[in-house]
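Friendly challenge for the regulars: who can give me the structure tokens for this chain first? No prize, just bragging rights.
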Amino acid sequence: MIEFKNLNKSFGDRQILKDLNIDIPQGKIVFVLGMSGTGKSVLLKNIVGLLKPDSGEIWVDGFPVHEMSEKQMSQVRKICGMVFQQPALFDFIDVYENVAYGLRRHERLREEQIQERVVESLALVGLKGIEKKWPHELSYGMKKRVSLARTVALKPKILLFDEPTTGLDPISTSRVNELILDLSRKLGTTSIVVSHDMKSALSVADHIIVLDKGRMLSQGSPTDMRNSSEHLIQEFLQEV
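First reply, four minutes later:
Bragging rights claimed.
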């Protein structure tokens, strides 16, 4: 579904991604782990064209992202749903309109179709019946779930999560992990989760990729990670 070939990205004289080669199989939940500043979020932003690689190739569902113009990137962004670290809800509209926002902007749907999609999406994230609430009435964890509902309402093929559990307590973290697993299976999406949380990765991921200083240090199943002798992975495991 997603392929990176010899990917390189620098900011000034600082190289963030170095000759990265990664294959993301269709329908799998893939966690990308690494220390802060190792290029995890940069990798996500390259997928949807928010950043462009200095060299190398990025293929997303057959699209050559590395050579597409900004106008052409709209085709890729329609199949990619990105869930950012912060919920980023609009405070001046209620939950219903927040979830409907992307539908009104990108789809040609009748109002009853929009309503059906909003209700369905909120139910998927465990928030039935809160359509008329306002963002300031919600907890931080609920805001993150509304943000996720807004993303899945567009029925993307690919879900991209940038540090989805940052700032959450253990119970909310567990709920978000369950949502990632449940949504990915129900919707049949390919999901990439950028994180530094090995515990979440071990409980949710089909496949784990560990980056270190812009390069791939290791990849494999959760079992492979548990059995790894790599020092950085051992440090992550000690935190679990």
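The radius of gyration is 18 Å. The beta strands are 2-11, 14-24, 29-33, 55-60, 63-64, 80-83, 158-162, 190-195, 207-212, 215-220. Your move, everyone else.
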